[in-house]
Amino acid sequence: MKKSTRVNHPPRVQVPADNRPLVAPIYQSVKFTLDDTVETESLLRGERPGFFYSRVSNPTLRQLELLLAEMQGQEDCLLAASGVGAVAACLIALCKAGDHILAFVESYGPTRHIIHRILGRYGVTHTLLSIEDKAGIERVLAERPTRLVIFESPTNPVTKIADIQHLVAQTRQHGALSVMDNTFAGFHNHGGCGIDVHLHSLTKYASGHGDVMGGAILASRKLIQSMRQDVVTLGPTLDPHAAFLIQRGMRTYFLRYERQCANAGRIAAHLAQHANVARVFYPGLPGHPQHALAARQMSDFGTIVSFDLKGGVDHGTRFADALELFAISASLGSTESLVMPPRLLGSRDLNAEQRVQSAIGPGTVRLSIGIEDADDLIADLDEALKAAFI
Ligand SMILES: *Cc1c(COP(=O)(O)O)cnc(C)c1O
Fold it and tell me: Where are the alpha helices (H) located in the chain, listed in sequence order?
């Protein structure tokens, strides 16, 4: 064999069956092979287990799918290369022309874009309500045959809490599917409350280190099976190396989330009594209008703390610029703390009434709390709150 042939047919290391790596290896291979044509055909017909092509399935991805399904209390999972990849693929797989979607003003902007700008072009209609408008939800579901209701809780950025029991009951009663983007609350929250589909951006808490993107669709085996071919054929495949990193991130998921929540709780309480802060939005504060609801349906209160600065946009800009430990950046759920000042919050696609519903004011600041020392973070916030008003 010439070397140019050998480099393409390298020696293989056989690992004995009773000799396992403690960390699952990365199957960084697009293709998988069996010994003969008949076995391969049987695999492609789904008559035997195995892997063939990584866009369709890959052992590293499958292992992460099984882990995430268990974490979220769902039966099965489909991965995607980003959170929005999961949202888009899920909605495309579930909807057809003529279907109606109920969505909310307080939702992730790109999700509204997918529903309004993309699915809208293919004959899917939607209604946009406030997540607090229970009467509106009941009215729309009673009046219009609806394929699915897609919602978030806590919402971005002002942490409104969806009444999940009410939403799921209404959705069921009218034969629609409930789809929850559960990115903010994490995998350990909102399982076992009858939600049909959970969506997650794995870019956030799952990866946890801000260095890799991913998304997940989690649902019953039957529902995932019904979506699988569409999602796979749309092609938002997660790379095996990214899946490996996300799986590594998941090992410290609970430690990170607990520390971030503990920090967030202390910071929220501190901001709530600060003279330059008009109002704090954190569901863990007894003063949050939906604190009792959040306590009922969540085991903790999340890692996003938003607040209204006294003053307005310019104070928010000076505040963010004065922070040393909080980077001005989008996203959440990583180990480091981040800030989004008022100039960078809010959505251009909402009308005046919807903007009021979104509750983002001229002084609204969003903090994503990391795992740093809480005293250091509070000292940094205090310095910046002072600097914003000089
Ligand atoms: C970040 C985010 C997404 C999108 O995830 P990407 O991984 O950035 O594509 C979707 N929904 C929510 C609630 C998010 O916070």
Answer: 3-6, 37-44, 59-72, 83-94, 109-113, 134-143, 164-173, 221-234, 240-250, 253-272, 291-297, 313-322, 352-358, 374-388
334, two tokens: 């990583």
**Ligand 1 binding pocket includes 82 (Cβ within 6 Å):** yes
Q: Is the pLDDT of residue 347 over 90?
A: no
The pTM for the full model equals 0.96
Is the pLDDT reported for residue 266 higher than 90?
A: yes
The two most distant CA atoms of the chain are separated, in Å, by 78
Confidence of residue 2 (pLDDT cuts 50, 70, 90): confident
Question: How many angstroms does the Cα of residue 201 sit away from the middle of ligand 1?
Answer: 5
Distances (CA, A) of 175 to 104, 147, 292, 307: 19, 8, 29, 38
Q: Which of 159, 160, 183, 347 to mutate to test the pocket of ligand 1 (most atoms within 8 A of CB)?
A: 183
Fold of 61-250: Aspartate Aminotransferase; domain 2 (3.40.640)
What is the three-class DSSP state of 130? Answer: coil
Using most ligand atoms within 8 A of CB, pick from 84, 213, 366 the residue to mutate for ligand 1. Answer: 84
pLDDT in tens, 111-157: 999 999 999 999 999 999 999 999 999 999 999 999 999 999 999 99
Proportion of the chain above pLDDT 90, given as a percent: 89
Domain with CATH 3.40.640.10 in the chain: 61-250
Which of 201, 202, 218, 345 has the most ligand 1 atoms within 8 A of CB, as the residue to mutate? 201
Ligand 1 contact, 199 CB (< 6 A): no
- The correct CATH number of 253-388 out of 3.90.1150.10, 3.40.50.970, 3.10.180.10, 3.40.50.620 is 3.90.1150.10
Distance of alpha carbon 211 from alpha carbon 168, whole angstroms: 34
Give the pLDDT confidence score for residue 377 in this predicted structure: 98
Q: What is the pLDDT of residue 34?
A: 96
Task: Report the candidate in 6, 61, 14, 51 with the shortest Cα–Cα distance to residue 31.
Answer: 51
